[in-house]
Amino acid sequence: MGLAMTGLGLVVFVVFHMLGNLQLFEGPHALNGYAAFLRDMPIALWAARIGLLSMAALHIGLALQLSMRNRRARPVEYTIHRYRHASIASRTMAISGMALLLFVGFHLLHLTAGVIDPGFADRRDPEGYRDVYGKVVHAFQNPFMVVLYLAGQLGLGLHLSHAIASSVQTMGFEHAALNRLLKAFGPVIGLIVVLGNVAIILAVFLGIVR
Amino acid sequence: MKFTLNIWRQNGPDERGRLITYEAPDVSPGMSFLEMLDGVNQRLLGNGEEPVAFEQDCREGICGSCSLVINGIPHGPDQGITTCQLYMRRFSDGASITIEPWRAKAFPILKDLVVDRSALDRIMQAGGYISVNTGGAVDGNVILIGKDQAETAMDAASCIGCGACVAACKNASAMLYVAAKVSHLATLPQGRPERARRVSAMLEAMDREGFGSCGNQYECEAVCPKNISTRFIANLNHEYLRAGIVESGLPSEPESPHAESS
Predict the structure, then answer these.
(1) I need a labelling partner for A29 at 20 to 30 A (CA). Which of A98, A206, B73, B235 fits?
(2) CATH, domain B118-245, list 1.10.443.10, 1.10.10.10, 1.10.1060.10, 3.40.50.2300
(3) Residue B262 pLDDT more than 50?
(4) Of A1, A70, A165, the CB nearest to B171
C-alpha cells in the first residue's frame, strides 16, 4: 500500500515535470521564465524537493523490505517455472527501478546541480534568467547524453507501464464496467510521459529546437 | 502413449529432495494425469519401491486436493481446470514432463508432492464467524439479495482453496485466496457485520503464515482452476482500506465469546 502511494506521488511528479519541460518548445523565454518562477518560491521549491526525495527514499525502502520478505516466502525455487500472464514490465520492476534510480541520480547531478557539465550551471540569458533552455539544448546536442537519456526514458516507460495500473489495483479501485479502462490507464500515462520527454530530447538532437 | 516423468521425491519435511526420472509406458490418451500417476505407482509397488505420494480426493475438480506443478505451471497447461481434470491427450507422445509440488514457505513439503496447506485453513479461521442465527432453517428469500451481488458472491465463493494461486505467484502470496474469501462474505448481508474485523484478521493471519505480498502480476488468475478474477484482490484492498479508515473508531478485537483466540 505504501509502495503504491509513494509511487503514485512520484508519478504525479514525472507528469508535471514532463509538462513543464515541454515549454522548451515555446522558446527560451517561456522555459527560463518558468524556471525562474519556480526558483522565486524557495520555500515551496525546497519543500517539494525534500518531499520528493523523502517519497523516493520511502518508495525504495519499502520496495527493498517487500522484496526481501517476498524472497523469504519461497525459500526453494521451482526447477521449471513458466509465466503465463505476467508482463515483462511486471517481472523487471526491481531492475527498471534500480536503473531509474541511477538515471535520476545522474540527471540531478547533470541538469539540476550542474556537477557533470558545469559550463552551463550559472549562465544567464539576455533577460537575466538562468539559461535552462541553453543548458538543455547544449546537453542534447551531445549524442552520448541522448543515448543515456533515451535509455532512462525506456526504463521509466517500462517501470510505469506496470506501476500505475498496479497501484490503482493496490489502492482498491475496481469497477466491473471500468476495469479495462483502469488497466489501460497506466500504460497510457506512462507512454504520454515518455513520448513528451523523448520529443524534447530528439527535437534538440535533430536540430528542430536550437 | 509414452512419457518420461521427472518427479520431485522428498522423504520428509526436513529431508533434501530431488527430481527422479521415471518412465511411463502404456499410457492411454484418455487417462487423467492422476490415473497416469496411479499407473506409475502400481509399477513402483510391483518393484517393491516406495510409491510417489501425491494428494487427491474427488477427482472431479471440486475438492481442491490435487496440487501439482506440471512443467512449471500449477495444474498444468490447460486453464480453468485442476490437475485431476487434465488428460494425457493434452501432451505429445514421448514428451518429458516435470512434476513438482507447490513451493512456498507457508506450504512445507510433507512427502514427495504432498504439501501442508493448513496455513490456508488458519487464515480462514482467523476470519471468524458470520452472523447467522441459530435455530430452524431460515425461509428462502427472507433477506433479499440483488442478482449482481449474488453472482459476485458466488464467483468469489467458487474458490476451492487448492493454493494454485500461491504456487504460481512469484512472491508465494495468498492474496487471491484471501480476496475470494473476503469478497464472498463482504458481498452478502450475512457477512457484512464483521467485514472490517474479518479483512484485517485474515490479512494479518496471511502475513503471520509467511506468504509474500501481491505484485499484481495476475499469474494467480491465470492458473486458478475456478477462474477467480483478480478484481477480487482490488476489492480486498478496498475492504482493507475501508476497515482502516471507516471503522478505525471501533475496537479491533471483538469481545464476543465466539472470537478466535490466537
Answers:
(1) A206
(2) 1.10.1060.10
(3) no
(4) A70
